[in-house]
Design a protein that fits this description.
Elements (H helix, E strand, L loop, with lengths): L1 E3 L17 H14 L5 H9 L16 H4 L1 H12 L3 E6 L8 E7 L2 E7 L5 E5 L13 E3 L2 E3 L6 E3 L4 E5 L16 E7 L2 E5 L11 H10 L2 H7 L7 E10 L3 H8 L6 H4 L1 H4 L2 E10 L14 E8 L14 E7 L3 E6 L2 E11 L2 E10 L7 H29 L15 H15 L1
Antiparallel strand pairs: 1-9, 2-11, 3-4, 3-6, 4-5, 5-10, 7-8, 8-9, 10-11, 12-18, 13-14, 14-15, 15-16, 16-17, 17-18
Length: 423
């Protein structure tokens, strides 16, 4: 027997989510605190302290290999780094229309982002409240979420609409069994969620507030360099790599150091001696406020020396790293993003989304060749990253050094991570 449930109407007073009643808020907090014990800071303090970000770049050593291999440290890191603050999870076109949805995973958190029938963007834990089955898979359109296990049904506003065969159940309040909401917002073409336990009240100028929290003063810099919503989505590529998520980030942040040696084709289209790295942060202000979490690397494009004049890189390439795991690359008519998701101490998934200026979206030959060149670079990087992970797991390696002229952004990343873990 299925029982249709008529939930109490809830007000919309939070940042792109509904605001639970006080009783439900207590219930959600109780679930979060009792079911998800946090890894102990004390147990990881020694490993964290093996890196000292106060040492000047020219004298500093890199974080120890245990930051990339230790299982206990990995669990602590995921809790401190990814379960707090705004995290990029998708792009606006994925939820352009009512009933659009997509799903994802961040650490152990399964989430679903959707646009309800009224056009409101929402996000929830993608877990049925009955017996914990995953509700939705992949992307697409749905008018409601139906659990594949026992048929419990939820609206796109998170409310429980139907619970099957529960006649005789006692002490059951429908308002306590809706989907657990997550904060969701947009900046430019990107969708972000926040896994923090405390849901903040809705504020005006949401996009500006989120932009400031996520990007700091770099928001305007990125917008000025063509990172906006004007480009069209082309395709997505996903890679599972046998390395710690930070290995991929480090590779991205070496200021083009490896390009001349590992990416001969890419190097021919860039003036590598023009690389400029900017990492804005002030350690004197560290104890008073959060400092910048974005670094940018800018490189001029090289002159064309091929007869067919194919050029996907243009006159300038801008590479922006948004802590902790999101990369935005703007070059020529293209923009691609790299989202690095931790899957374990020695495994990660990297999701590439490609966007293109409208004037070239119908040039299939140009698109195909551009993607082929990009794919070649990714394959070369995967070999590098997996080789580094093997080296990190070797007893021969503990710490390394920075190349001060080029690895400023990597040093900045490690410093931000250290402070994130220590506070």
């Amino acid at each position: 027997m299925a029982i249709l449930l008529k939930p109490i109407s809830l007000s919309s007073e939070t940042l792109n989510i509904y605001k639970p009643k006080s009783k439900k808020s207590h219930f959600i907090k109780k679930i979060s605190n009792s079911c998800s014990p946090k890894p102990s800071f004390e147990s990881q303090k020694r490993i964290i302290s093996e890196f000292n970000p106060k040492i000047p770049l020219e004298q500093a050593v890199t974080p120890p290999s245990s930051w990339y291999t230790d299982n206990g440290y990995y669990e602590f890191e995921v809790d401190r780094v990814f379960y707090q603050g705004w995290q990029a999870v998708g792009y606006a076109e994925q939820t352009k229309d009512p009933h659009d949805f997509f799903t994802g995973r961040l650490g152990n958190v399964q989430y679903v982002v959707c646009r309800d029938g009224n056009g409101k963007l929402r996000a929830f834990h993608n877990v049925c409240r009955h017996h914990a089955s995953i509700l939705a898979v992949g992307t697409g359109q749905k008018s409601c979420f139906v659990c594949p296990y026992h048929g419990w049904t939820y609206g796109l506003d998170g409310l429980l609409l139907k619970a099957t065969r529960i006649s005789g159940i006692q002490n059951f309040d429908v308002n306590e069994f809706g989907l657990i909401p997550l904060q969701v917002a947009t900046w430019g073409p990107f969708i972000l969620i926040n896994l923090s336990k405390n849901i903040q009240p809705q504020q005006k100028d949401v996009s500006n507030i989120v932009g400031h929290e996520w990007l700091g003063s770099c928001a305007e810099v990125l917008s000025a360099n063509g990172i906006d919503s004007s480009l069209s989505f082309v395709c997505r590529r996903e890679y599972t790599i046998e390395c710690n998520w930070k290995v991929f980030c480090d590779n991205y942040l070496d200021g083009g150091y490896h390009v001349a040696y590992a990416h001969k084709g890419l190097a021919s289209g860039l003036k590598l001696d023009s690389y400029v790295t900017t990492a804005i942060f002030d350690r004197l202000m560290l104890m008073k406020q959060l400092y910048e979490k974005v670094s940018t690397q800018i490189c001029e494009g090289g002159s064309l020396d091929n007869s067919d004049a194919f050029d996907r890189l243009g006159s300038k390439a801008v590479y922006a790293f948004v802590y902790p795991n999101f990369m935005i690359n703007r070059y020529g008519p293209w923009m691609d993003t790299n989202l690095v998701l931790p899957l374990g101490p020695s495994k990660c998934q990297v999701i590439f989304d490609y966007f293109l200026e409208d004037s070239l979206k119908d040039d299939l030959a140009f698109i195909e060749r551009s993607l082929e060149e990009s794919e070649r670079v990714q394959m070369e990087d995967i070999v590098l990253c997996e080789g580094v992970q093997k080296g990190l797991e070797s007893p021969a390696y503990c710490t390394g050094r920075y190349a001060p002229a080029v690895e400023k952004a990597m040093y900045h990343f490690h410093g931000v991570l250290y402070d994130n873990l220590s506070t």
